[in-house]
Amino acid sequence: MSVVFNAVIKIDENEQWFIELTDTVDGRVKICKDLDEFATNVEELGQDYGGHVDEVKWSKDEDVPPFIIDEIRIKMAEQRAKIEEQTGEPITPYATKKEE
Question: Whole-structure pTM over 0.90, yes or no?
Answer without folding.
Answer: no
